[in-house]
């Protein structure tokens, strides 16, 4: 990508989509928040909407929130409704269809919720659902009921209210060493409010690390300002996991946002969701993972798409997930291979197929090319050998 993004370039944008935007505004995240696309009229300045999209937008009114930052819209193909960026952000008819087995909370957040915002599911770490706001409402959000569904949320009404009860719970449970701020997107808050939350956590001696789950580096990388990064750096160790799903999302702007975080000592990881029609093929996923390494983001999880109400049309089979994982493992460095997990009420469960089978003769191993060998029990005993 070259030139100032958002400027109308008649060579790459002959149809005249992508309105001309002065650089000072384009580089200001608040401008993008103010100018979010949330009506068909605004969307038509960026995309040639299809009849299906228009129908879905109309049908989801009053049910699902819809908003797209101009930055994220600029990554979309204005003429291709199957564009992988567009599919993540523009409502589709599948959201309003009914599928068997869907649930608004398949991961059990409400079951493990201990205070208004704290979900305590694992022994040593919690998540804090600090907001329901996001710059773009991803159509595939696993917390769609909380973020995108206007009829629901896991919060009481006082999102802006005091965090005292939540902080007290964490302080009262010194086994909690790791607090993950999520939502919604925590970076939707202004820096001042965010620093209040982070320093509240830092004041608790048993909290060792603070993690932030944020899709801003992908949806509006301009939000990752030097001021924000310097603020986070005052409260280290702070880690951030983001959510790239497709190589098209890796741009000079997103790479620069990641670079600012890294320069301020915030390690950046990535959680991808396996989505039908978006990234459910080996080539796309291999490119995504290696491109992430190029911008120094470490792949962490590959989530199997949960059977969430309004999201089920994005689901793939577990077989497809295996095929993709086996197209990564060994073909590219292990550093670029995420862990394939299913998020359930009982936790995140690794579901990749093993590369070994225990046999009477030892471990039967296979490699990425399908070649097999047995390592005998004399070399690698499977059970503890008898005392010698
Ligand atoms: C995902 C999640 C975590 C963090 O899990 P890690 O595997 O440590 O990244 C913690 N608590 C809840 C409730 C979660 O859903
Ligand atoms: S940014 Fe994250 S929390 Fe917000 S809608 Fe997208 S996936 Fe959901």
TrEMBL record:
Q: Could you name the domain of life of the organism this protein comes from?
A: Bacteria
Q: Which InterPro entries match?
A: Aldolase_TIM, Arg_2_3_am_muta, Lys_aminomutase/Glu_NH3_mut, rSAM, rSAM_sf
Q: What cofactor requirement does the entry state? A: pyridoxal 5'-phosphate
Which PROSITE patterns does the UniProt entry name for this protein? RADICAL_SAM
Q: Which residues carry this modification: N6-(pyridoxal phosphate)lysine?
A: 348
Q: Where is the composition biased (Basic and acidic residues)?
A: 1-11
Q: Which NCBIfam families match?
A: arg_2_3_am_muta, KamA family radical SAM protein
The name under which this protein is listed is Arginine 2,3-aminomutase
Q: Which organism is it from?
A: Streptomyces cinnamoneus
Which taxonomic lineage is given here?
Bacteria, Bacillati, Actinomycetota, Actinomycetes, Kitasatosporales
The gene that this protein is the product of is: blsG
């Amino acid at each position: 990508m070259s030139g100032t993004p958002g400027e109308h370039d008649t060579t790459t944008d002959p149809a005249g989509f992508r309105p001309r935007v002065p650089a000072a505004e384009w580089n200001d995240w608040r401008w993008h928040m103010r100018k979010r696309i949330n009506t068909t009229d605004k969307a038509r300045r960026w995309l040639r909407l299809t009849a299906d999209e228009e129908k879905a937008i109309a049908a989801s009114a009053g049910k699902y929130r819809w908003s797209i930052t101009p930055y994220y819209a600029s990554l979309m193909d204005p003429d291709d409704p199957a564009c992988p960026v567009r599919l993540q952000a523009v409502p589709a008819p599948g959201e309003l269809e009914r599928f068997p087995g869907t649930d608004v909370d398949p991961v059990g957040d409400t079951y493990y919720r201990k205070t208004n915002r704290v979900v305590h599911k694992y022994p040593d770490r919690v998540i804090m659902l600090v907001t329901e706001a996001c710059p773009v409402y991803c159509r595939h959000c696993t917390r769609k009921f909380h973020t995108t569904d206007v009829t629901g949320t896991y919060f009481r009404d006082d999102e802006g209210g005091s965090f005292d009860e939540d902080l007290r719970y964490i302080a009262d449970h010194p086994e909690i060493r790791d607090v993950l701020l999520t939502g919604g997107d925590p970076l939707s808050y202004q820096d001042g409010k965010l620093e209040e939350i982070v320093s509240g956590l830092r004041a608790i001696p048993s909290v060792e690390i603070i993690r932030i789950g944020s899709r801003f580096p992908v949806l509006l990388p301009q939000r990752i300002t030097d001021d924000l990064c310097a603020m986070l750096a005052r409260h280290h160790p702070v880690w951030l996991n983001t959510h790239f799903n497709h190589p098209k999302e890796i741009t000079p702007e997103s790479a620069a946002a990641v670079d600012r975080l890294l320069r301020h000592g915030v390690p950046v990881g990535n959680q991808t969701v396996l989505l039908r029609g978006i990234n459910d093929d080996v080539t796309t996923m291999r490119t995504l993972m290696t491109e992430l390494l190029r911008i120094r983001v470490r792949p962490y999880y590959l989530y199997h798409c949960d059977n969430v109400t309004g999201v089920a049309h994005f689901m793939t089979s577990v077989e497809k997930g295996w095929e993709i994982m086996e197209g990564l493992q060994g073909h590219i460095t292990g550093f670029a291979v995420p862990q394939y997990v299913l998020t359930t009420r009982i936790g995140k469960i690794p579901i990749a197929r093993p590369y070994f089978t225990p046999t009477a003769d030892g471990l039967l191993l296979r490699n990425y090319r399908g070649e097999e060998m047995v390592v005998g029990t004399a070399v690698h005993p499977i059970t503890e050998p008898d005392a010698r």
